[in-house]
Amino acid sequence: MSKPAVGFVGLGAMGFGMATHLVKQGYPVHGYDVFPASIERFKAAGGIPASTLRESAEGKKYYIVMVASAPQAQSVLFGDDGIVQYLPQNAVLMLCSTVSASDAQSVVTELQNRGRGDILFVDSPVSGGAKRAADGTLSIMAGATDEALNAARDILQEMSDEKKLYLVPGGIGAGSNMKMVHQVLAAIHICGASEAMGLAAHLGLDARATAEAIFASDAWTWMHENRFPRMVEEDWTPGASALTIILKDAGIITSSARQHRFPTPLCSTAEQAYLTALVHGWGPKDDSAMIRQYYAKPLSEVSPSADPKAATELVLELMRGVNLVAAAEAVAFARYLKVDLAQFHGLVTQAAGASKIFIQQGLEMIEGLIGDKAPEGSPTVEQAAAKLEAVVQKARDLHCPLHLGNAALNVLFQAQRHGSGRHSSTSVIRVYG
Amino acid sequence: MSKPAVGFVGLGAMGFGMATHLVKQGYPVHGYDVFPASIERFKAAGGIPASTLRESAEGKKYYIVMVASAPQAQSVLFGDDGIVQYLPQNAVLMLCSTVSASDAQSVVTELQNRGRGDILFVDSPVSGGAKRAADGTLSIMAGATDEALNAARDILQEMSDEKKLYLVPGGIGAGSNMKMVHQVLAAIHICGASEAMGLAAHLGLDARATAEAIFASDAWTWMHENRFPRMVEEDWTPGASALTIILKDAGIITSSARQHRFPTPLCSTAEQAYLTALVHGWGPKDDSAMIRQYYAKPLSEVSPSADPKAATELVLELMRGVNLVAAAEAVAFARYLKVDLAQFHGLVTQAAGASKIFIQQGLEMIEGLIGDKAPEGSPTVEQAAAKLEAVVQKARDLHCPLHLGNAALNVLFQAQRHGSGRHSSTSVIRVYG
Q1: B296 — contact with chain A (CB < 8 Å)?
Q2: Could you report the per-residue pLDDT of A7-18, keeping only the tens digit for each?
Q3: Which domains, ranges and CATH numbers included, belong to chain B?
Q4: Half-sphere exposure (CA, 13 Å, Cβ side) for B297?
Q5: Which of B258, B276, B417 faces A433 most closely, judged by CB atoms?
Q6: pLDDT, tens digit, 9 for 90 and up, residues B84-118
Q7: How high is the ipTM of this complex?
Q8: Out of A263, A389, A401, closest to residue B276 by CB
Q9: Which Pfam families does its entry note (chains A, B) (predicted)?
């Protein structure tokens, strides 16, 4: 059976991989991008070049939008040459860009205002990076009406891993909310990876040995493992994952949080660290270049530590403390937004926001195993704070910035001041109300 | 009556001013510094040069230590050539350096261990900057036994403004604690001045006009008015008040706070911003150079705003929000440390940590005029958060870092999440427990 034609806009790092993967699966994909060079590259990879948005959309029952931001999505959908006016009746329109839930919801309103309520619109952001995009093994979080989800399902499944197409309950906006709460972890862990390696450098630790210790421990994060090779090689141009991308995602989180008056101290702290790097000109570089905000020289130029074992333990404790509060922040915000928490946990576990701490302690938070109900032998908030405190003091003695470590410690102290000190460390989630 | 001889160590920016002021008042001051050039400069100003610590101390009934840090104080007091071994019986030893209360208390212990319990030791940090040091109009916060305070009083009064010698109840450590809680405000406001002017630049505002609007408003801080000329002139070398100095003071605050497990989210945020500037090489520069962490170009090179009135209001709202939470953080920490709050308020009002918000809302917090007891017509936490939220969103749209603005907003959101939203904005202090 021949595959249906697909329209596609946004042939950047992620979009190019997704579109060419569909080409390999036998779909005639009509791709457009604002950069002619990207269209040429797509043509060379077997895609069908579209010279205008109109050409990419006319007669296409399926259409995928993978531009970089909500304003770009607004423009390609509803601008002067916007695709909505060209799509056929009952077309299936998949918005895969990362936008806020309210941006996704406003697309529905505008479709109706323009008399295109017939279009089957799906809010379906993706996660996984350029490599998984090209392999067709992305995580995709899709929210829509049942009719639209059924219509989009096969194509979304082509682009996602067999087990990573998440049909998120809650309609339009639910997919974007799921992606957003996932990105709470991603935004913190990307900065956290540089913070941990910056501390390691100040402590005189070998970067590779430290990273291996992290990967083998409960301090592991997906982001650390993913970013570390580029960080240590200083392979920052062009950015495989540009600083501006995670900055945009952090901005979606914190502006949504502000709309709900919900505190996100760690994610805000990471965002401010990214903005400071932007002021220093690092925006287009790979986000692993955040290491430069913590340590001024290459990681290969450290002075060796006298006691690498104890020093490595400090780095692990930093990550444990930050990852714990990150898990609390993500779970608390997800719960507040009424995100399906079991699905959220399953998704994160398999995606870029994963950490060992989230997988274990995050689940305990989700299941309400906090306070007296925590598993026997769990460390207390006081104990978690005491360990992180020792790291923060050591970093301070070394003049090493520790944005996330300090923010996490202050959240733990707030938990203590509000009576949770002797309770399990997962009880730190109570600070979020 | 001839004035008694005074020994003095630490002829840096502050110490030189203090020592030469005593010289002008007729005291024979025997000054020592680790840098021979500083001793020469002191000699040229009428001081008596001491070529060793011993020479500065032998036979001196009064001795003033004004070195830069606690480790330096430890060394000049108790090192191999330390002055304690040379001071006469019942000498009056004034430690004017900014150190932690526990550092000051450990001096007492060590004096006793060395059989020098006869020395009348005074914990007497100062505030006010190099100019006021030279004018003899510093603020001095002195804690000690009554006997030691009486013995030191005349000399401390020589160096301080008539109304700004504070005899702080509580003995050794009380002076340092008073200085420390004052520096909570100083550390936040120094960073806050650059943050506000950075936002102003991103908004396209003229720096001088904006500063004048700030000085004339309830957003005024002493630090802003003091640092602004150097910030706008880029007069950063050598630092009139080096970044490393406020960084040291912030470190005393946050490490003391950690010892008490007390949260200081704003002060920690400022400290991390300073540490990041240090990584970028700004340590020896004037702390007003923090503006470079917010805006990459000189303030004179901004693109003019279309609506300067509305934009200026955003800058004022930023400072109001930050100064409010700064006041809460300082008052809460001072109360926790059992600092005399009435004296604290009076002192700050006349010193470098002053802000209009602290003078008014800080007093309301001290007097317990929060919640239902706030003055009629006070804004609520919700209202304060909503105003700051608009600023934070605008700054984010402009890619302007807003470390303190975001941290303050998260504290306000936490107050809302814990049920204080409809209460007076001063109720934000409840977040500190």
Answers
A1: yes
A2: 999 999 899 999
A3: 6-172 (3.40.50.720), 177-432 (1.10.1040.10)
A4: 10
A5: B417
A6: 999 999 999 999 999 999 999 999 999 999 999 99
A7: 0.86
A8: A401
A9: NAD_binding_11, NAD_binding_2
